[in-house]
Each structure stands twice: as structure tokens, then as C-alpha cells.
Amino acid sequence: MRETDFVSGFARGLKVIEAFGETRQRLSIAEAAKLTELDRATVRRSLLTLAELGYADYDGKFFTLTPKILRLGHAYLSATPLPALLQPHLDHLSEKAGQSASASVLDGTDIVYIARASQRRVMSINLTPGSRLPAYCASMGRVLLAPLPESEARAILARSELKQNTPNTKTDSDELIAEFRRVRAEGYAIIDQELEIGLCSIAVPIDNDRGETVAAINIGAPAALVPAAEMKERYLPLLKETQAALRPLLRR
Amino acid sequence: MRETDFVSGFARGLKVIEAFGETRQRLSIAEAAKLTELDRATVRRSLLTLAELGYADYDGKFFTLTPKILRLGHAYLSATPLPALLQPHLDHLSEKAGQSASASVLDGTDIVYIARASQRRVMSINLTPGSRLPAYCASMGRVLLAPLPESEARAILARSELKQNTPNTKTDSDELIAEFRRVRAEGYAIIDQELEIGLCSIAVPIDNDRGETVAAINIGAPAALVPAAEMKERYLPLLKETQAALRPLLRR
DNA sequence: TTATTTTGTGCGATATATGAACAAATGTCA
DNA sequence: TGACATTTGTTCATATATCGCACAAAATAA
């Protein structure tokens, strides 16, 4: 791609949108400039553009995103057949298991939820389509990283912030790579409170007919009710069933 | 705002993202140009920028959005306290009612789902945060339109495509305005299969402490199980309970 | 008050959009 | 099949718009 095939004003604007998040619902021009490391004048123009288009509100001091911004992500969710395809199967799975079921894909070092069927809340985190978790310590993340060539998996781990979320969290690259090998061989991943104390989950890959892993699905359960040791016998058959039901639908 | 406070390259890029959707997961440059009514050269630059940043894939012919695009909508969902605040209450509500419960806000002529707790699927449509429905024929839509000044409500209806989705759908502006008046007076809206045959729903507004309606919550149920006439006695008390529980939390 | 931070603006340097021209691919019809 | 017409993608020159700096004004803090 040539230099001039890149619209930097657009790229800068997207960076400004991403500056909003978590504890940053209201951003002043200066704050947004600091977060994005862009010039204040540039950030100001981007924010005013967002406001002019109705993607943001401006009270003269702070900018906040409006729900219109959801149109952008929704363009993906409705444009990609995967979420709509998975949803009914997740509903069914979730009901049979009596636990939350989710589907996600890989984006860099994170997994991104693309569909979810929740039974009551077990996690402290509020997960919705678009939510992100670090791949290295999530059951679906391990399933999505497992099929990658080792060099690529290592590169992703190297870019990941391998944080010790709980005493159980595996943070050693070699250990994780070995775990990926096991996941590849056995076809599932189990997480025992590595992300959050009290939460276990089990995931399997969803492959298309070429055998490429395109997504992962999982079931999460409170460790208090379902010890990690029981996750496999309780939920793996259900997950395999869903996996098998989805296979013929993924012709691509 | 001055002319030069507007970054048109950014605005054009956002328009290109929105061109993706529904049956448009794969767009060629020419298709995207037609949909956005922008110059082919301009669209090409925007799409290549998206690809360069990892928001889109390019196979040399077609562009498709990647899950990274969800970061943009997620910036809103995680930045705005409302979805996270509502979610546990929706879970509770959904469980008590044994039906799906949702929350939405208004964006132009549409309602946008910002949180949802689903029991088994009753609708043919797959609703997730970010999903949109026309406001005029949705229970939450009526609740969100009701508090607006009549002139504003009429303006929105005028911009809406008042489609006869089912034989029950109200499409007459005057009739809808009269219904808004009733909703304002009685504090709830009921939809009896106006969006889709077989689906009833009931909604109430969520106000902040200044009395401004900031969102709506609803319960949807299959008409076969719960006739519209029973929606009120069955679910209105539960909705009012949730509404009351939320009131002190919306200090803003 | 002064000091500090934040926001708004003018301007030259630089980057982008435009529309036409061309090349390549695709489709159409005899 | 081959010749022609269309559509699509790409490139280029130039008119135009944006960027980022420097400074001024305003707001905020000390």
C-alpha cells in the first residue's frame, strides 16, 4: 500500500473513539489528547466531527459517546453470519447446561465475545458482545490460540500482558505453549479460576469445513457449584454436541 | 463550529463502516462507493485504511470487517455506566418473569438495545446490545417517544418508515401520538404483535432523578403463552419494582 | 493575586480529495 | 468463439482541506 492510500484523519478519529472506555465516559479535549498521544487541535477536530455527526455529545467542556456509536460495531455483528448462526445453539446449550454459554473470536491478544446466552450472573464482569478478555487466561482464548503455529502463538503471548489474576493463573509462556499442545490433542480447554476466583470454564473450538478454527464456544460455571474436575464430564459432551451440530452449517 | 473544525476524511470513513451490514458482509470498492455515495477513489482509501489498521480484511477484491471493529461500540458500552447498571436488574427481572428482559435507548428513529437478559428465544430476530428496532412499533420505543414534545415526536415519526409489519401494526401518526399521550399518563406501553406475529411486550421508562427518561426496559413474551390482555397484570408490577429499584441509582 | 492548565485560533507546510484517464477484468451478444 | 461494451480498480496532477505549531484567551488551581 502506498503512503497516499492511507487516510490519517480517519485513523486518528478511530483512535479518539477508542480513547473512550472503562472509566472514561467523559473526556475533555486535553484528556483525549493525552490518551491518544495526538495533537490537541487534531483531537478537538475529531471530537467536534463526532459531535456534529451525532456520535458524541458535547456540553462545551466534556464529550461523551452516544448510542449511535453502536452502529459501527453493529455493522460487524449483523454483517457477519457467525453471531446469528451461533446464538440459537448457545441458547440451547445454556439451557441444557443451566449455565452461561458464550462464543468468541480472536482479535490480537484478546478474545472478543460475539454472542452469549447467560443464565444468572456468576462473574463480576459484565460480558456482552464486544467485550474483551485476555486470551491467555480464558478457556476460549486457549482454544483459539492452540491451533496457531507455535511461533505465532509465542508472538501473541509476547505481546500479552501475562498478569497473575489469581494464584491459579498460568503466566509462563512455555507452560502455556505446552497447554496449547494438550488442547490441540484433546480438543478442549478448561480454566480453573485463572481469570477470577470462583469461576471455572470449559471451551471447544468451532471449525469450518476446511478445519480452520473460526470461533470458540464455552460454558462458565461457579467453582463453588461445579469443581473444575467435574467440568469435563458434566459439560464436554454438551459442548461436543453443539460443536457437531454447527459443523455442517459452516460451509464458507 | 467552523468549517475547518470538521474532519471530512473521518466522517467519510465512518460512513464507509456503516455501509457494511445485514446482507453486506463483503463489499467491493465499487459497491461501497455506491452505498455511501462517495467517490470510488475516496472509498478505496478509507477501506485500505481500515485494512491497514486491522479493522477490515482485504482479499484483493472484497473487504470484510474484523471483530476489531467491535472495539468502537464497546467503547460506548463500557464507558457508559447505564448498561452495566441495568444488567443485574434485568437478570433478576428476567428470572422472576421467566421471560426475556431488555433495556434500550433512543437513537433517531430507532431504539438501540444496550443490555439484555434472555430466557429462551421467542423472536425470530437475534437481539444483542447494539441491535436496533424501529421505535414506533416497539414497546420500549413508545415509552421513549412518549415524553418528547409532540412536535419532536411527530418529526421522528415523519422520518420513520411506518411499515405494516403485521396486521396489528399501528402506522397512523395521529393514532401513535394519541398512544404516546396514553403512555405518558399511564406509565407503560404494551405491544400486541405489532412487530412480529406471536410476540407481545410491555415496557416502562427509566427516569433519572430529574425526571428525564434515559432508557426503557421491557419484558417480551410469546403471545401464545401470554395474551396481550394479561401482560399488564402479569408483568407491570415486576417492571414497576425494577423501575423503583433503579431510581435511586440514577443520580447523574 | 499569580501560576498552571486547558481551550481556541491563525497560518504555513503538508496531506488529502477530486475527477479524469487508463488498465484490467468482467459481462454481453452475434 | 471473438469483438464490443461495461464495470471495476488504480494512478495521477492539482485544487483544496487538514495538520501541528505557536500564540492568545479563558478557565482553574494554588
Automatic annotation (TrEMBL), chains A, B:
GO molecular function, one term: DNA-binding transcription factor activity
Domain spans labelled HTH iclR-type: 7-67
Signal peptide per UniProt: none
InterPro entries in UniProt: GAF-like_dom_sf, HTH_MetabolicPath_Reg, PcaR_PcaU, Tscrpt_reg_IclR_C, Tscrpt_reg_IclR_N, WH-like_DNA-bd_sf, WH_DNA-bd_sf
Transcription regulation found in the keyword field: yes
Pfam families reported for this sequence: HTH_IclR (PF09339), IclR_C (PF01614)
UniProtKB keywords: DNA-binding, Plasmid, Transcription, Transcription regulation
GO BP of this protein: 3,4-dihydroxybenzoate metabolic process; negative regulation of DNA-templated transcription; positive regulation of DNA-templated transcription
Domain IclR-ED, first and last residues per copy: 68-252
Cytoplasm recorded as keyword: no
Descriptive protein name: Pca regulon regulatory protein
